[in-house]
Every structure is written in C-alpha cells, then in structure tokens.
Input
Amino acid sequence: MATLLERKRQTTTDHLVLAALAGLAKHGLAVTVDDIAREANVNRRTVFRYFATRDDLLAVALTQESDTFRSSLPQLGDQGWQAWLAELCQAVHQANGTLHRALYELVTRHDLSPRLLAFADDIDTYRRGRNSDVADTLWRAIGHDGGAPGELRSVVAAHLSPHFTTAVSQDAQENHAVAAILAREAILAALDRHSPAVDAGGRSTDPVNSGTHGGDR
Output
C-alpha cells in the first residue's frame, strides 16, 4: 500500500502532467516551465523537484495522453462500420484538435530533444499502423478480401492526420467536429469508388453512400 508521502507525490505529479497538457494546448512545444507552473499554480522549483527537465515532463504528459487516447479509440462492433467510422473520425479529430499545435510540431520539427523525438517516432509509427488497420477493416467491411488498395490507404491517412485537423481549424476557421465530418465523407467517397456493387460504366448500383447512413450526415 502506498504511503501518504507516495500518494502526495503522485497527486502532485498528476497535477503537473495536467498542467503541462493545458500548456501544450495553448502554446504548443513553445510552452515553458513558467507557463506550466502558472497552469499548476505552483512555482518553477516545484516543477523541477518532480521532473529533471521540461522535456521530461512534456514526454510523460504526451505519453499518458497518447495511451489514454489509444485505449479509448472506438472498435468496430455491433454498431456497423458506418457508425464506427463516424465515431472513429470524431475521436481522432477531437484528440488532434486538443493538442493540434503540439502534434503538428512533433511531426514537422527535427530540432527536438531526444526524449521528444522518441515520442514523435512512437506516435508516427502508431499512426501509420492505425491508419493501415482502419483502411483494411473498411476494405473488408464493404465485401473485399485482403488488404486495402493504396488509394484508400492514402485517403484514410490524409484525413485522419493532425495536419488535416490543423488545416480545417486554421485555414477554414472551423473546428474538430467539422474536420471529422469532412474526413468521414472523403473516406466514404473513396470506399464508394471501390464498392463491389459498381457497374461497368462506374455507376454504383448499391453505393456505400446510399441511405444506409445518409440520415446522420
């Protein structure tokens, strides 16, 4: 059983992690120890009492947030693949939207500390694997065998990317919910082009985008 001192230390650590995430959401990777200390309502000495460096704290905060996101990502079940795709796009873009600035910097900057570069490599590997799994799952859901074609993989990867969330947020001045809708529509359109129910002229006789999901747009 944890001692009172250990519980107190864990409580403070958790508080600093949450403050770091709040700072990342506001400032991206430019967040400073002073920013985090203000979020946590402590002094900077307290931060360094628990974490040797700013990047150690950021790496812990980002890793915990990433682990929580991965474990809570919706899985395909009885809800049907169209509903699952909608839930997935919403979950991914909500997570992207929360830390979009930091996520964008992690995948575009190469001047990071070894600790943050390691985290960036980890989420890049995870994202590639997740997107590949999503494309393959959708490919099989519409009646095909094997792995998804390159076009579908590209559409899924592009539209679940933090770059896409950032573009919708900054260039289109919309939010993560709109990014999720646009992503779902683009992926559905790509699936429709590969639907088994397409005649020789390229016309869909039973399209993915038929009334099976049109009412929830």
Observations:
- The domain at 1-72 is CATH 1.10.357.10 (Tetracycline Repressor; domain 2).
- The chain is about 70% helix and 0% strand.
